[in-house]
UniProtKB/TrEMBL annotation:
Coiled-coil region list: none
Highest taxon listed in the record's lineage: Bacteria
Limits of the HTH marR-type domain: 1-137
Keywords linked to the UniProt accession: DNA-binding, Transcription, Transcription regulation
InterPro entries per UniProt: HTH_MarR-typ (IPR000835), Tscrpt_reg_MarR-type_CS (IPR023187), WH-like_DNA-bd_sf (IPR036388), WH_DNA-bd_sf (IPR036390)
Listed name of the protein: MarR family winged helix-turn-helix transcriptional regulator
Length: 146
C-alpha cells in the first residue's frame, strides 16, 4: 500500500486528537483532564504502585507523571507515601475521593465511547482493537531493535 503515512498514520493521529479533544471537553465538568484521568484510573485499579511502575503503565516520562501526580494530590484524589522497602521511592495510592470520582466518571466515559462507536458492529470493533494491538507489537519490536 502506497502513502501509508498519509492514509493510516495521519488519519490515526487526526482521530486521536479529535477523541482527546472531545473527552477533554466532556471531562471539564469533573475538573479533570484526560491525562489526569488516565493516571487516576490506573491507580484505582492498582493501588499502591510505585511512581516508576506507574509511569511505565501510563506511558509517561517521570517528569510529566510527577506534575500530574502533584495536581491529583492537590485535588486530594491521590496520596504519595514513602515505600517501606526503599526510602527513595514513593508508593502512590488513590484516596476515597479519588475512588469516588473514578466511580462517577467511568460510566460517563463508557457512555461517550458508546456514542463514538455507535453503529459499528462488535466484530469490526474487535478487529480494530486486534489491529491496533498488532501495530503496537510491531512498534515494540522495532523499538527493541534500536
Amino acid at each position: 500500500m502506497k502513502y501509508l503515512d498519509k492514509s493510516i498514520g495521519m488519519y490515526m493521529n487526526y482521530i486521536n486528537r479529535k477523541v482527546l479533544r472531545f473527552l477533554s471537553l466532556n471531562l471539564k465538568k469533573y475538573n479533570i483532564t484526560t491525562e489526569q484521568w488516565s493516571v487516576l484510573l490506573h491507580l484505582v485499579e492498582e493501588d499502591g504502585i510505585n511512581q516508576k511502575q506507574l509511569a511505565k503503565k501510563v506511558d509517561k516520562d517521570q517528569a510529566t507523571l510527577v506534575r500530574i501526580l502533584d495536581i491529583l494530590e492537590q485535588k486530594e484524589l491521590i496520596v504519595r507515601k514513602k515505600s517501606p522497602d526503599d526510602r527513595r521511592s514513593f508508593l502512590v495510592h488513590s484516596t476515597l475521593k479519588g475512588k469516588q470520582l473514578k466511580n462517577e466518571v467511568y460510566p460517563f466515559i463508557e457512555s461517550i465511547f458508546e456514542r463514538i462507536t455507535n453503529g459499528i458492529p462488535d466484530e469490526q470493533l474487535n478487529l480494530f482493537i486486534d489491529t491496533l494491538n498488532k501495530m503496537e507489537k510491531n512498534i515494540l519490536t522495532e523499538e527493541a531493535k534500536n
